[in-house]
Amino acid sequence: MMHSRYIHPFRFLMVALVVFTSCAIKDDLPLPIRKAVITAFEVEGQCDESGEGYAAASIDNDKRVVDLYVDDRVDITKLRVKRMDVTSDAKITVEDVQTDFPESSFSASGSNAPTLDFSHEVTFVLTTYQTYRWKVRVHQIIKREVYLTGQVGNAIIDPVNQNVVVYVASNKSLGTLHADKFSLGGIHGTVMPDPTKSETFDFSQMRTFQVKMAGVDEIQTWRVFVYKTEAKESIEATAFARSVSATISGTIPMNTQPVVEYRASDSNEWTLITASHVLVNGTRFTAELTGIRPATTYSYRVFAGTAKSEEKTFTTVGEQHLENGSFDRWSSVTGSSGKELWQPWGEGDVPYWSTGNAGATTVGNSNSTYKDEDGRRFANLQSKYIVIKFAAGNIFTGDYLETDGSNGVLSFGRPFTSFPTKMRFDYKYKSSPITRTGGDWKEAYGTYISKEMYENFKGRPDSCSVYIALGDWEPVTFTTSKGINIQCPYLIRTRPSALHLFDMNDPHLIAFAQMTKGEDVTSWTTETITLDYRVKDRQPKYIIVVASSSKYGDYFTGGEESLLQIDNIELLYE
User: What's the CA gap between 406 and 360, in Å, rounded?
Assistant: First the structure.
């Protein structure tokens, strides 16, 4: 892609002569590609999935979709947009909506903020040289809860027809029931009359209630039906097992405290999960069980009030470990340029790790190799400026697919279905001042980063980076320049016009941990990083481990003398 706006006079003269002498030549130069992306989107009442705390919008640049949540204090049909940031040269229009909406990035508050109807998804059209259609979906969290003393099971709440059906135990008097919760208008709404304000309430016949949500003027009329049932108060429980922990969750009778016990299949002794590890919300409970063994079957049971669950079992997931985490096995071949290409696997081995050497050796020597020193063999990752471009020393689980110009196309990830708690490794690091910065522009997760911004990095200490990620990504197909289709767990491209790097906000990311270091570590040091499991009810499909001598190597930015030496990467299950 060309970015220079200066044309040498001689070049201009040659172009003019060609055009003059051949009027059959068309001006078919392609327009520059300027992707238009939404980088931030914020509305009034924005919250997280629970409906209480704040959470930023989830922005998917591949699908061009923005998802966010709002609480029950706003009118979603007249929702104020407080902020919208797009790439600097993009023009904003709202499809199929007649409204005076800003045409560029903005931040506004109160009555100055534009309003839109987000009761359905809204399409924003961003225009540069090309046109990009983005969907914005706003999900309103309205927590409607009804809990009566003696209730059996959860209330059946129908917000479309505004009906509620509740079943209570047969020994309860419908005329004198106590209402523990009765929030039909959400957390911040009101209900008239409010059954929770009196000791008991008469539900012996159908009752109507006037319900108003906090953010709207409309008053709804709801009907509540309460019936007796011969069904006993019961407990439902299920378990999601990991490797050394599990989550047991389900429903219990209202106003009871669950007692959760478990035992290994080879033991007759039951262990109690302490109350501090059991969370109760109405009739829902969640218990976290830790310190158990991988690949082991456990039984569990739950008591609450006079109810008892049936005894059930779960089996924890076995341990999986990294291959060649000691980096003892290496081999070399002659690359396409005739240079020696070093590979982090032994001759005849199935590759597990890879490096960017295949790209580096198109113009220079391998900069990610091994070294024998201090009585050990380890990965020696050296940042270098190789003829035309800066290259960080790196190693990762996955495959180097091909070189696109002077940029790499990589497949991150290896199959993995276990649940480690930590990753440990030995390392040394030599940081050097950043001397090389990226090209004219890079696009990272929707943000255009100018060359001037990269220039500000110069002189600062370089940092190394080591991270681990577990996820349930859906593989994508990459077609090589030779027409070969390859399934990639996570496709990485460093070409600026098609940039796709690892996204720590990816919704498929299950667990993550990272170490960065911007100072010298001159002796072998053992580092242990703890995985943060963002979700606890999904099993990973792949593992990604990446080590780089320059944290911003993906952007061709770093210090030419930075050196990361790393050894004995291992997964821990504690």
Answer: 9
User: And the tokens for 96?
Assistant: 């199929």
| Residue 183 and residue 142 in contact, taking contact as beta carbons nearer than 8 Å | no
DSSP bridge pairs for 492: 410
**Strand 563-572 with 376-382, pairing:** antiparallel
Question: pLDDT, tens digit, for every residue of 358-389?
Answer: 766 555 678 889 999 989 999 999 988 765 56
**CA dist 464 → 431, 538, 553 (Å):** 8, 30, 9
Which residues face 165 on adjacent strands? 156, 225
Rounded distance between C-alpha atoms, residue 319 and residue 335, angstroms: 37
Length of the chain: 574
What are the φ and ψ backbone dihedral angles of 318, each rounded to 5 degrees? -70, 165
Give the model confidence (pLDDT) of 386-401 as tens digits: 655 677 889 999 999 9
Q: What is the DSSP string of 2-69?
A: -------HHHHHHHHHHHHH-TT----PPPPP----EEEEEETTEE-TTSSS--PPEEETTTTEEEEE
User: What SS3 class is residue 111?
Assistant: helix
Query: How far is residue 315's CA from residue 515's CA, in Å, rounded to a whole number?
Result: 32
β-sheet bridge partners, residue 314: 298
Domains of the chain, CATH where assigned: 38-140 (2.60.40.4120), 145-229 (2.60.40.2340), 236-315 (2.60.40.10), 331-572 (2.60.120.890)
CA–CA distance from 155 to each of 77, 167, 181, 334 (Å)? 28, 7, 11, 70
Express each pLDDT in 231-241 by its tens digit.
777 899 999 99
